[in-house]
Amino acid sequence: MMKYTKVTGEVVTELEKIVGAKNVLTDMDSMDKYSHDESASKFKAFPEIVVKPQNTEQVSKTLSLANEKRIPVTFRGQGTGLSCGAVPLLGGILMSFEDMNKILEIDEGNLVAVVESGVVLLNLREELERKGLFYPADPGEKSSAIGGNVCTNAGGMNGVKYGNTRGYILGLEAVLPSGKILKLGGKTIKRSTGYELMHLIIGSEGTLAAVTKIILKLIKLPKLFITLYVPFPNLHDAIKTVPEIIRRKITPTAIEFLEREPLLLAEEHLGKTMPHHEAEAYLILRINGEKEDELLEVGEAVAEICMENNASDVFIADTKEAQDKIWDLRGRFYEALVQNKTVKLVDTVVPPSTVADYMKEVKRISEKCGVRIMGFGHAGDGNVHLHLMKDKLSDEEWKKK
Ligand SMILES: Cc1cc2nc3c(=O)[nH]c(=O)nc-3n(C[C@H](O)[C@H](O)[C@H](O)COP(=O)(O)OP(=O)(O)OC[C@H]3O[C@@H](n4cnc5c(N)ncnc54)[C@H](O)[C@@H]3O)c2cc1C
């Protein structure tokens, strides 16, 4: 087991010199926010000190000092992770990138953006939208930071058409524990020189290096969207529709599945209602395009495939308002379920065509154990979010489960 040392008064003074006294926190109250992420358990571990670097040089000097003194360092973007990656389990230094939040360049000619790692996804999206550009990687939590998205290789609802974060990273600036600054990749698409260290760092959850700057690949902002909201009598029919759509060479940007129970909970939590409640399962699909008539034609083709697969109806939302209502509700499922006493969140991925069988098995286990398990997720790429609900069980009863 590696031996670490504590943050002494002398180290605090040195860190204050590196990042400035106002960018160092040591009192428990102000460090509370840095002791957990958004995982359902809200597991907590306090750092000994929080450091907020303002630039790469400060990151480098801090890491070099920590390395010399053998003090553990945990990196944090916006702390929206669900697996405690940003929780400082070993104490030591919590390095927060929240102040390194500048969009450094938007190169419209080359469809590239250069950002500091603390830039919040939503802010980048809005800035790009104003220029008619789009960064497609799309984790559900838009308040996450791009650095956090890179280090978790975040996926999301757009995954079925656009893939995960990794596909949109052209270059990184990263700092090794020694303090050495690496510049990996670049603005060009074609690169074939040597080992691709950049891809080792993407998804490494802060275990290899601190990411300080990111070069992102962009696409043109799709002009038009429609959303289809489709009730089915059961999950099996909903899921078997998905490969049928893909087989006909239609690629929606998002295909989400949900079941009735979490939908009702989300409606209650948000005080909003969807058009249909009787169905056991639903698909929500978003399709984008450049021309209205072509987009509607694709929408009708998808509707037809859904009806061939026993859908009870197809609601097509084409106004922004109607679509936002549907996606807002879907986007806030996590919040609704956590409020209803989710005690554990399990994020799994299975081959897309097996989602219904997987959920059947989950239900069998749920009934056997007497624990309610709610499932929903990305039908397009087989990413299923399971929420294990404590409901009215006492702590004692829960422990026995
Ligand atoms: C409601 C909700 C919905 C979500 N939906 C999705 C989803 O659809 N898809 C998905 O993939 N995730 C999802 N997440 C999880 C989370 O939002 C993502 O993992 C996101 O990428 C985390 O970003 P963050 O800035 O909050 O990172 P943090 O939680 O702060 O950190 C995540 C990990 O990255 C490391 N890290 C952060 N910044 C750096 C850096 N600059 N250098 C080195 N390491 C760093 C941390 O040490 C940690 O290991 C969701 C979370 C919530 C609460």
Q: Could you provide a short overview of the structure?
A:
The chain is of the alpha+beta class and 401 residues long. Helix content is 34%, strand content 24%.
Structural overview:
The strands form four sheets. Strands 15-12-14-13-17-18-16 form a seven-stranded antiparallel sheet. Strands 5-6-10-8-9 form a five-stranded antiparallel sheet. By secondary structure, the protein is an alpha+beta fold. The mean pLDDT is 93. It contains 14 helices and 18 strands. The chain is 34% helix and 24% strand. It starts with 8 loop residues before the first helix and ends with a helix. It has three domains: 88 residues, Uridine Diphospho-n-acetylenolpyruvylglucosamine Reductase, domain 2, CATH 3.30.43; 118 residues, 2-Layer Sandwich (Uridine Diphospho-n-acetylenolpyruvylglucosamine Reductase, domain 3), CATH 3.30.465; 166 residues, Alpha-Beta Plaits, CATH 3.30.70.2190. Helix 1 packs antiparallel against helix 3 and helix 9 crosses helix 12. The radius of gyration is 23 Å and the shape is globular.
